[in-house]
Design a protein that fits this description.
0% of the residues lie in helices and 52% in strands. The chain is built from no helices and 37 strands. By secondary structure, the protein is an all-beta fold. The termini are far apart. The strands form 15 sheets. The protein has a 3-stranded antiparallel β-sheet with strand order 3-4-5, with no helix packed on it. A 3-stranded antiparallel β-sheet has the order 8-9-10, with no helix packed on it. The protein has a 3-stranded antiparallel β-sheet with strand order 13-14-15, with no helix packed on it. InterPro entries: Pacifastin_dom_sf, VWF_dom.
Length: 284
């Protein structure tokens, strides 16, 4: 037949979601790659093009934060996250990056690699099973000690005892020497009070509190080493003679008495007579 047109009948393009693509063209549909085939059909990969993570939907290629880590929604629908540490754990406590905190007297910091960096200075001293803070002062027997910033203890080196009269005493210990009190000092010397412990009276020695006689007077040895006596007269002296209190005696024709005051009282008779210019004794 003549006057007819005879054409091949192969597809020249593809139509996909309202768009026209030439044979062999490649294009994207969301995360999938598509191709316009010679058959006129479109062939696409079949990825899901989204990820579900912690009940949230993310598009393929979308990134989001999970703590300090970055997560990416992958073409296969899985989520890939970096695994950097986001906090530091130190002695069972959790700290954010950059956080500074105290560990005893030391200062610590949470670093971005998840490690904790602390200063390393001593915070206390241990001495004979006891713990002391830096700068603390304390006693060890008679010695004074101090906890140094190095963590070591420095103490004075006294022997902490005294030897006195072949006896051993600890520093600070007191003991009696007679009526005096002695103390063992930190420098190992003994310091005693110097109070008198007895009284000496007329060459005789008396203990504190002792009472004794001095003639007719009563005396007492006092705690200050002095003797206190009553002060009453014990006799009278008359014309070179000594008489006890209350004694009576004659002086010529007069009668005398030794009084408690220590004075002598006598009668006052003249004890003589004058007659014709002659002197006669009484009763002569």
């Amino acid at each position: 037949k003549y006057g007819q047109v005879d054409c091949t009948n192969r597809p020249c393009h593809c139509t996909y979601k309202g768009q026209t693509y030439g044979i062999g063209n490649r294009f994207s549909d969301d995360c999938n790659q598509c191709e316009c085939l010679a058959t006129g059909y479109v062939r696409c990969s079949t990825y899901l093009c989204q990820c579900k993570y912690n009940n949230k939907i993310y598009k393929v290629g979308e990134t989001f934060k999970q703590g300090c880590n970055t997560c990416t929604c992958k073409a296969d629908g899985t989520v890939d996250c970096t695994t950097n540490p986001c906090t530091c754990t130190y002695k069972y406590n959790v700290y954010d990056f950059g956080a500074e905190f105290k560990d005893d007297c030391n200062t610590c910091k949470c670093k971005n690699n998840g490690q904790v960096d602390c200063t390393n200075r001593p915070c206390h001293c241990t001495y004979k099973g006891q713990t002391y803070g830096i700068g603390n002062r304390f006693s060890d027997d008679c010695n004074q000690c101090e906890c140094l910033a190095t963590g070591y203890v420095r103490c004075s080196t006294y022997l902490c005892q005294c030897k006195y009269n072949n006896q051993i005493y600890k520093v600070g210990e007191t003991f009696k020497k007679g009526c005096n009190t002695c103390t063992c000092k930190a420098d190992r010397t003994v310091d005693c009070t110097t109070n008198p412990c007895t009284c000496t009276y007329k060459y005789n020695v008396y203990d504190f509190g002792a009472e004794f006689k001095d003639d007719c007077n009563t005396c007492k040895c006092k705690n200050n080493g002095q003797v206190d006596c009553t002060n009453r007269p014990c006799h009278c002296t008359y014309k070179g003679q000594t008489y006890g209190i209350g004694n009576r005696f004659s002086d010529d024709c007069n009668q005398c008495e030794c009084l408690a005051t220590g004075y002598v009282r006598c009668s006052t008779y003249l004890c003589q007579c004058k007659y014709n210019n002659q002197i006669y004794k009484v009763e002569k």
